[in-house]
Amino acid sequence: MLGRVHLKDHLFETRLITNRAILLLVAGGLLLSILLVRLLYLQVVSHEHYTTLSEDNRVNLQPLPPNRGLIFDRNGILLAENLPSYRLEITPEQVDDMGATLGALENIIEISDTDRSRFEKLLARKPRFEAVPLRFHLNDEEVARFSVNRHRFPGVDITAGLARHYPQGPHAVHALGYVGRIDEKALKILDSSNYRGTSHVGKNGIEKTYEELLHGKVGLQQVETTAQGRIIRVLNRTPPVSGSNLYLTIDSHLQKVAEAAFADYSGSAIAIDPNNGDILALVSLPTYDPNPFVNGIDYDAYAALRNNDKEPLFNRALRGQYPPGSTVKPFMGLAGLETGVTSEHSKTYCPGFYMLPGKDRKYRDWKRSGHGTVDLNSAITQSCDVYFYDLAQSMGIDRIHDYLQHFGFGKAAGIDIQGELPGLLPSKEWKRSRRNQPWFPGETIITGIGQGFFLVTPIQLAVATAALANGGRMLQPRIVHAEQEAESDELLPHHSQVVETITIGEQQHWDMVINAMTDVVHGARGTARGIGKDSPYMIAGKTGTAQVFGLKQEEKYDAEAIAEKLRDHALFIAFAPIDDPKIAVAVIVENGGGGGSVAAPIARTILDAYLEKPTP
Amino acid sequence: MSVILSPHREDASQRGWQYRLHIDAPLLFALVAVSALGLIVLYSAGGGDIELVERQLVRLGIAYTCMLVVAQFPPRLLQRLTPWLFVTGILFLLAVLVSGETSGGAQRWLNLYVVRFQPSEMMKLAVPMMVAWYLADTRLPPNRWQLLASATLIAVPMFMIARQPDLGTALLIASSGIFVVFLAGLQWRLLAFFSALVAAAAPLIWHFMRDYQRQRVMTLLNPESDPLGSGYHIIQSKIAIGSGGLFGKGWMNGTQSQLNFLPERSTDFIFAVLGEEFGFFGILLLFAFYTFIVIRGIMISIQAQDTYTRLLAGSVAMTFCVYFIVNTGMVTGVLPVVGLPLPMISYGGTSIVTLMAGFGILMSIQTHRKLLPA
Q1: B183 Cβ under 8 Å from any chain A Cβ
Q2: Residues 47..66 of A with a Cβ closer than 8 Å to B: which?
Q3: Domains in chain A and their CATH numbers?
Q4: Which of B235, B243, B256 should one mutate to test binding to chain A, selecting the residue with the greatest count of A CBs within 10 A?
Q5: What is the DSSP string of A147-214?
Q6: Bridge partners, residue A543, by sequence
Q7: Which of A106, A333, B46, B56 is 20–30 Å from A267 (CA)?
Q8: CB-closest option in B141, B242, B301 to A21
Q9: With the CA atoms of B292, B298, B299 and B302 taken in that order, what torsion angle do they form, in degrees rounded to the nearest 10?
Q10: Is the CB of residue B181 less than 8 Å from the CB of residue B131?
C-alpha cells in the first residue's frame, strides 16, 4: 500500500470521542433539568390550578327536576295530576343493526315519520351510550306489547316519566289553565337555574299564576362523568323539593252542573261565595280539553280551536267584556238613593220612550207601550228603562261613575288568575283622555241602563253582586283557598281580602234594592218570576239584556230575523238565600236573547246545585 | 462520574456469565425496570384492560428476544454488514414512497407479504451505523469532504422519511446521525455554522411543513387558542400532570386518564398518566432509570475498543436520550406534538423492537471486547 496513508492516532481519537461523549451527557443532563423544572412548575407551583381544572373536568352538576304540585278542587277532587308517561328509548351502542331494529319495532309499535326523523336527528347529536327517545306517550297496550317482545330488542327500553294530566278534561279549564313545553319566550323570564331539567311550565290559568308554588325547587346531583359525559357515579345529591299542592275554591260538581246548564250556548257564569270571595264555579263556554296542549297540540287541532267562531280558547269569565244591560239597575238604583237623587217614593212616568228636553231623539223602553207610572221598586222589578234614563240624566255621568266604581266596575276584580281585563266604567274624564272627545248627554242616558261605553266582565259582575248580598263588602275573589307544601299534611290557607267596604248611607236604601231584586224573582210582575215560582229558598236577582248591535230609531227588534251572532246577550245576576246569602252568581249567555228566559234558568240551576246539595 | 466512565483494565477472572451470554446486566436491569413500570402504567392507562397488557407483554418478549439475538453478533460482523443494511434500507424506503401502504394519512408501511414493517424503523439503526462505518475508517476529526459525505448519508434517508410524512422519526434519525458526527469530533465552529444555518433555514422549513405540522407548532405556542381542537391534547395532558402533584392521585385513580379526558393515553401521552397517578416522584423514578440507561450507554461507548463501536454506542445512547426527552417535552407542553412514543412504555408500535435491537448492539459492543494485556 503506497501513497499517502493517514495514520490514525488511536489515543487521540479515543480521547476525542470520550470527551465528546461526556459533553453530550452533560447536554442531555441540561435538557433533563429543564424538563424537571417544567415538571416542578406543573406539579408543584401550578398544582392547585390544575387540580381545579381536573375537578371541573370530571364533576358535572345534574339537575333533578321537582314533581309539580297537584291541584284539587274544594272537596279534594283531583283536577291536575302527574301521570307516568312511557317513552321508548334506544341506546345506540347496544344495538348492532339500527335499521333492522327499527324495522322490527315498527311491527309492534307505531312509529310515525316525525318520530323517525326526530330520532335520527338526536341520534346524530348524542353520544352513543346515551339513550335516544323514539316514541313518547306509549299507551298501556303498546307498553304491554313491547314488554312481551322485549327480549328481541337489546338496547331498546321503556322508561317512565311524569306528565301533567287533567282528569276533568275540559271542565274548568279556563280557571285551571294548562302547562306546555317551555318555549323561548318563557325561557327568558324563568329562573334558569331553578328550571334546569324542567321541561314544562304553566301557560295559562292557575297553572301559570301559581307557577312558582307548583313548580317546586330543583334538586342537584354532582356526578362524575367521563369526557364523553357518561356518568360513573353520583358524588352527592340534593333532592328536589316537589311543588306545593293547591286546593281550589272551585266545586267541580257545581262547575259541571253550571257548564251543562248552558247547553249549546256560549257564555260565562261565575258563582262566588259572598261571605269570603271563594269562586265556586268559573264557567267560560265553549271550553276545550287542555290535555293535548301538554305535549304540544298538533297543528290542525290547534288551528281548529283557533279558527272556531265560538272562540273556545277565549276566557270569557275574566276577559269577556260585555255591556251589563239591565243588571246594572240595582246598582244604579242604590246610587240614586244613596246620593239623594231619587227616593223610595219618587215616581217617573214611562210612556215607552224618553226624550231629552229640547232634543227629538227618542230613547226607547224595551216595552213599547211603556210601564206607566213607576217607582224604584217597580222600575227594577219590571226593568223599566225610562225610569233609569231619567235617573241617569238627573245624576250625571260623573256621579254615576263615582258611585259605581265602589262596586269594582272599571277595574280588574283581582282574582288570582292572570289576564283579567278591567271592563270599562265611562266618565267624562275617561272620554276626554282616551278618546279626546267631549261627553254627550245622550251617553249618560244609555249608561243608566248599562249600555253605551259601559263594559263589565262576568267576574266583576259576580263580585259586585256578592257585595250587594253581603252588605257592601267588596271582596277580592280567590280561586285558591289553601296550599300544601310537599310532604306536609298541613294546609296553609289563603285568606280572603276585603278590598273595600262600601259606606252605607242608609241601610233602608240597601233593603229597598234587595227587596226589588227579590220581587224580580218572586214578584208577580218580576222579569224572572219564571224561576221563582217553585224555589224552596228566596232569590234576589236581576235580569239583563245587552244589545250587541244598535237598532235604528223606529226599528223593531225581531230575534228571529237577526243572525244569531247579532242577537242580544242574556244576563242574570242573583244571590240566595236572601236572609243568609251563601252564593252569588252572574250569568252571561252570549246571543241568548232575554235575560229572564235564558240566563235566569241557568242561574237557578247553579243555585239549586249549590244550595240543595246533600250536606256531606 | 469519571470513575464509572473511565476505561479500566480487567482480567479474565472478572468476566462471568454476562460475557458468555453477551448480556450487560446493569443495562438489562434498568430496561426490565422501565418495562415493568411501563406495564403497570399501561394497565391503568388502558382502564384495567389486561388483554392490552398481555399484547404489550408479547411485544416486549419479541423485543427482548431481538435484543438478545443482536447482542450475539460480534461488532465486527455488524460493521461488515453495515453498508448492506443501509443500502437495503434505502431501497425499502424507495419502495415505500412508490408503493407503500397508507395508514393514518401517512405512507410508512411496506408489505413484504410475510411481514408488514416500516423501513424507517430499520433506518433508525442503519443511519448511525453507516455514518460510524464511514467515519471509522477516516482520520478523526473528519475534514470538510468527509463531513459532506456524512451529511449526505444522513440527509438522504431523512428526507425520504420526512416525505412519508413522518417528521418525528426523520428528526430522530437525523439526530442519531449527527451524534455520530459530533462524537467523531465535529469542529465547534462548524457546529456553530450548521446551527446558524438551521436557524436561518427555519422559515424555509416552515414553508415545507404540512398544515398539520404548522398547526402543532402554533398549538405549542398557544394551546388555549384552540382548546377543543389541536390544543386539546396539550391542555388535557398538562391538567393531568399538574393535578398529579408531588405524589400523584394513585394507581388507577387518575381522573384525567380514567375518565377519557386524556387523549391517546396508552400511546403517545402515557407519560401524562404516569404524572397524574404517580406524581412528580413517579416521574423522577422513571427518569432515574432512563438516565441510568443513557449513562450506561455512554460508558459502553467510552469503554469500547475501536472507533466504529465507540461512535455507534454513543449515538445509540444519546438517541435514546433524545427520544424520551422529546416525548416528555411534548407531553408537558415545551415541545411541539411530534408523534413519538415514550420509549419502552407507550403501547404498541414496531419502534420498541428497533429500540431493543439498539440496546442489543450496546450489549454486543460491551461483551465482545477483547481482553487487553495487563
Answers
A1: yes
A2: 47, 49-51, 53-55, 57-58
A3: 62-151+160-248 (3.90.1310.10), 252-479+492-611 (3.40.710.10)
A4: B243
A5: HHHGGG-TTEEEEEEEEEE-TTTTTTHHHH--EEE--HHHHHHS-TTTTTT--EEE-SHHHHHTHHHH
A6: A572
A7: A333
A8: B301
A9: -170
A10: yes
A9: nearest CA partner in chain B? B139
3-state secondary structure of A280: strand
Q: Is A235 on the interface with B (CB under 8 A)?
A: no
**DSSP state string for A469-514:** HTTSEEEEPBSEEEEE-TT----EEPPPEEEEE---S-HHHHHHHH
Question: Given this model, what pLDDT does residue A1 score?
Answer: 40
Show residues of chain B in contact with A21, CB under 8 Å.
183, 298, 301-302, 310, 314
Q: Give the minimum alpha-carbon distance from B166 to chain A in angstroms, rounded to a whole number.
A: 24
Instruction: For chain A, say whether B281 makes contact (Cβ under 8 Å).
Output: no
In angstroms, rounded to a whole number, what is the distance separating the alpha carbons of residues B59 and A405? 96
The average pLDDT across A138-166 equals: 87
pLDDT tens string A198-238: 878 899 899 999 999 999 998 888 888 777 767 778 888 88
A3-7: list long-range contacts, CB under 8 Å, 24+ apart.
A6/B138, A6/B139, A7/B139
**What H or E segment, with its residue span, contains residue A541?**
strand A540-546
Q: What is the mean pLDDT of residues A460-474?
A: 93
Q: Do B280 and A40 touch (CB under 8 A)?
A: yes
Check if A148 contacts B (Cβ < 8 Å). no
User: CA angle at residue A585 from A583 to A588, to 5 degrees?
Assistant: 170
From chain A, pick out residues whose CB is under 8 angstroms from the CB of B138: 6
Adjacency order of strands within the sheet including B116-117: B101-103, B106-111, B116-117
Q: What is the model's pLDDT at position B58?
A: 93
- In terms of DSSP bridges, do strands A348-350 and A372-374 run parallel, antiparallel, or are they unpaired? antiparallel
Quick: pLDDT tens for B28-57.
999 999 999 999 999 999 888 899 999 999
Interchain CB distance below 8 Å, A35 and B329: yes
H-helix or E-strand containing A579? none
Q: What mean pLDDT, rounded, does chain A reach?
A: 87
Least Cα distance to A342 among A306, A398, A388, A296 occurs for A388
Place of cell 431493543: B356
Best residue of B190, B233, B259, B291 to probe chain A, by most A CBs closer than 10 Å:
B259
Q: Which residues of A are catalytic?
A: 326
Q: Do A46 and B242 touch (CB under 8 A)?
A: yes
Which of A77, A97, A95, A60 minimizes the C-alpha distance to A234?
A: A60
| Selection from A30, A19, A31 nearest residue B183 by Cα | A19
3-state helix, strand, coil in chain A (%, to 5): 40, 20, 40
Reduce the DSSP state of residue A440 to 3 states and report it.
coil
Min Cα distance A94 → chain B (Å) is 20
Residue in B246, B280, B311 closest to A17 by CB: B311
What is the per-residue pLDDT for A614?
58
Q: Is B178's pLDDT higher than 90?
A: yes
ipTM of predicted assembly, 2 dp: 0.90
Q: Which residues of A touch B301 (CB under 8 A)?
A: 17, 21
A103/A97 Cα distance (integer angstroms): 10
3-class DSSP state of A583: strand
Q: A450: left (phi > 0), else alpha (psi -120 to 50), else beta? A: left
Task: For A354, list phi and psi in degrees, rounded to 5.
Answer: -135, 140
The minimum CA-CA distance between B169 and chain A, rounded to whole Å, is: 19
Domain ranges of chain B: 18-72+209-366, 84-199
Beta-bridge mates of residue A181: A200
